[in-house]
Amino acid sequence: MNIKRLVPTTLVTILLATFFIGLMVYKDKPVSAATTCPGYMSEVQCYNYLLEQFTQLQKEQGTLQNQLNEEQYKQLTLEDKITYISNQVHQTQNLIKSLEIEIAAHDIEIKLLEQDIQDKEDSVSLLKQEISVLEGTVNQRISESYKYSFLSPFDLFLDSKSFSNILRKTKYLIVTRAQDIASLEDYSQKATSLRKEEEALSVQKTDLITKQNAILAERADLAAQNKSLEAQVAEKNKLLAQSQAKSAELLSALRQNKTLQSQLDAAIITWINAHMGDIVNSGPVARGSIIGYVYPGTSACSTGAHLHFGIDTRTSGTFSASVDPFAGYLVWGEPSGIVSSYDGWNYPYVRSNTYQVPVAGTVIMTQDYHNGRAIDLSRPNGAGSAPVLAAYGGTLYRGVDSCSQNYAIVVQSDGKRSIYVHLK
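Given the sequence above, the corresponding structure tokens read:
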């Protein structure tokens, strides 16, 4: 067996085994990838086995992202529902306050009516007493008038001692009779009028009490409705908290997987460096020339169609992305407006400066510095099969990576190297 090839491959195997241990901490989505290759496998079999585990990891990553998207949608729906129900609660509370003010006003009006009715009842009672006294007096006068009306002149003559007194009483009774009758009629009319007012006030009071009872019933219904709405808000908040907790778990798992994938990416670069002698010199290439096309889709070495790009300060030896591509080479532009991912990334535009943007068309950065100073580039609507351009002129070398995808290295005329990974 080739010792030169065995050592890097063994290192890759150990690194991959370490990476897969991290996946075992996610209890809701356990990773079944083995931490090491079975002892009976050859180097090639072990390598293929690890690639299968990596593919499984990629599938799980997609599942986790879908679950996170679902949780975020649930949260959005719950937040909308909570906002709507909270508005209903607020409106119901305002309506209840309005009804309470109306009830308080009716209470005052009822009290005033009750006081007015009581005053009328007192006046009627007083008039009844006065009428009773007057009726007694009048009855007495009528009796005396009746008595003296039937005395003959002979009777008056016989009772000569009281004759003057009888004349005086008779004259008094005749004069006061008309006054008593008028007073009785006046009292009777006042009592009748007061009774009518009392009856009208009683009807008004009855109507007001009926209306008050209806308002009280409506307030009770609104209070029950408000209690139900508040219970719904509490339940929705509980569900939202549960969903947010689930999202936190998914985010944690996604970050772990993202870190693991970055480490596996590094392992692929390590594999490329271990096979640097296999690359083929394809001759000179000018800045902006097409040197390949972005691999379309996801594979065991890449998630989604994108270009892995890096710059090295050296022109030979193992490759390491040691140069900041935005230190005068490319331009880090404004956010593209694409919805931020779970880790808050805003997909900025990337533009040319002294170097050509290595993907043709409108380009965004899907992930910044990883594996040193490397970046991932794509297009807003996907970069599958997009032309890959030489960032700077030099000598082009081509190779095939561990996933049977092409990659390119340009030994540049400015004393640096650039690498282009995930090509077809």
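The chain is about 60% helix and 15% strand. Try to locate this feature in the token string yourself.
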